[in-house]
Design brief:
By secondary structure, the chain is of the alpha/beta class. It has three domains: 51 residues, SH3 type barrels; 207 residues, L-asparaginase, N-terminal domain (Rossmann fold, 3-Layer(aba) Sandwich); 114 residues, Rossmann fold. The chain is 22% helix and 27% strand. The protein is built from ten helices and 23 strands. The strands form six sheets. Strands 9-6-10-12-13-14-17-18 form an eight-stranded mixed sheet, with helices on both faces. Strand 22, helix 8 and strand 23 form a beta-alpha-beta unit. Helix 3 packs across helix 4 and helix 4 runs parallel beside helix 9. Bound molecules: glutamic acid (GLU).
């Protein structure tokens, strides 16, 4: 029998013996190379002519576990897990060597049985996407699915790709009006079939937070440190992915983390300033996708706003430099912003430094932008949060008024110098 991709094989070669999982040969690679994934996770290529003998140690089996029906425990709260895709729902596809979204929320429960010690789990897959592909329509679908469940569960966990998790967290914070229970978003930096996956601990902590935290906010729950010690709960409007690959990539920006969540089921509150569980009836606001997020940079092409106007954009978020500067002296973005305003476009501005706040009046140039061009300065709001908020604000009666209101903790009134780069 010839070895197939996915089979565990032993290759006896002129250069030694290698054991690993046979991977498919990428189309661009010559037929003369055989690739295997070693136990360490590394892939190696071996010249096929150097292989003297191939032994199949184990044939490839689909890794999904047999599903078991969960028993309802009336003493425990009930949590709905809604899965949307991303690495936390992915496993390695041995036919392509990449990772693909596959596991449903039900599969998480089967793979992580301790979840049933914390809560009764209701599970459903609402979409299966990588988060870089998420659209404003997907945000609406997530919000609607969460609100549908909220009337008969004690909290919600949404599993999500990490890349744009903070955009979704912000979008859901604004889309869900009158939130009454926690909506906790979690994910994983390493896929679930790797020994080093952070998925299990993140899931346990997210379900713990959804079951026990007394908050009624959208929050992200992810590893707090590089170790598997505890997770941090971060307000959905004040959080950002700050590292490409570390487990502790998510941080609170211009805000304190809401809580530390431990795998033993305890929650240590680190920020008392949050919306508490309540009896409100949540509903879903509308959303627009006619918003552009524009990063200011030296020698930028000033035609970018013209371009967006042609696309019939209705809102612009400018990620300006530091206190809120845009090019205005040598070459000016001013006339394009004025033209956008005339066409009914709402322009708002945040800082690309991420930490700190923009100040509309400190310098003459800033006054030219805020007072002269009517651009709304958003204090310490993150550009990604402002983008999600403006998508929702455009469907409200007075978008600028909506942008100025503190709807979901997106403005922190206090200066938080102690939390810088923590
Ligand atoms: N880029 C993918 C996503 O955000 C995978 C990364 C991840 O989940 O960590 O969905």
């Amino acid at each position: 029998m010839q070895a197939q991709p996915g089979d565990k094989v032993k290759l006896e070669t002129t250069e030694g013996i290698f054991e690993g999982t046979l991977l498919p040969r990428p189309e661009l690679l010559s037929n003369d190379i055989t690739i295997i994934k070693l136990k360490t996770g590394y892939n190696i290529g071996i010249e096929t002519k150097k292989i003297k003998k191939t032994t199949i140690l184990e044939t490839y089996k689909a890794p999904l576990a047999k599903k078991q029906a969960a028993k309802h425990n009336p003493e425990l709260p009930t949590i709905a897990i809604l899965s949307t895709g991303g690495t936390i729902s992915s496993r390695i596809d041995y036919r392509t060597g990449g990772v693909y979204a596959d596991y449903t929320a039900e599969d998480f429960v089967n793979m992580c049985p301790e979840l049933q010690q914390i809560a009764n789990i209701k599970a459903s897959k609402i979409m299966s996407i990588m988060s870089e592909d998420a659209t404003t329509t997907d945000w609406k679908t997530m919000a609607e699915a969460a609100v549908k469940e909220l009337s008969h569960v004690d909290g919600i966990v949404i599993t999500h790709g990490t890349d744009t998790m903070h955009y979704s967290a912000a979008a859901l914070s604004f889309l869900i009006k009158d939130l009454n229970k926690p909506v906790i978003i979690t994910g994983a930096q390493r896929s679930i079939d790797r020994g080093s996956s952070d998925a299990f601990m993140n899931m346990v902590c997210a379900v713990t937070a959804a079951a026990k935290w007394n908050g009624a906010e959208v929050a992200i729950c992810m590893h707090a440190t590089m170790n598997d010690d505890y997770c941090t709960l971060l307000r959905g409007t004040k959080v950002r992915k700050m590292h490409t690959s570390r487990r502790d990539a998510f941080h609170a920006i211009n805000d304190e983390p809401l809580a530390h969540v431990k795998t033993n089921g305890t929650i240590e509150i680190t920020n008392e300033n949050y919306r508490k569980r309540n009896d409100a009836k949540p509903s879903v606001r509308k959303i627009s996708n006619q918003v552009a997020l524009i990063q200011v940079h030296p020698d930028m092409d000033l035609g970018i706003i013209e371009y967006h106007l042609k696309q019939k954009i209705k809102g612009i978020v400018i990620a300006a430099t530091a206190l809120g500067h845009i090019p205005i002296t040598q070459k000016s973005l001013g006339p394009a912003i004025a033209k956008a305003a005339k066409a009914g476009v709402t322009t708002v501005l945040c800082s690309q430094t991420v930490y700190g706040r923009v100040h509309p009046y400190t310098y003459t140039n800033l006054r030219k932008v805020s007072m002269g061009l009517g651009v709304t300065y958003l204090a310490d709001m993150l550009p990604e949060t402002a983008y999600a908020k403006l998508c929702v604000a455009l469907t409200e009666k007075d978008p600028v008024e909506f942008m100025k209101q503190n709807i979901a903790g997106e403005y922190t009134m206090r200066e938080l110098d102690d939390s810088f780069l923590l």
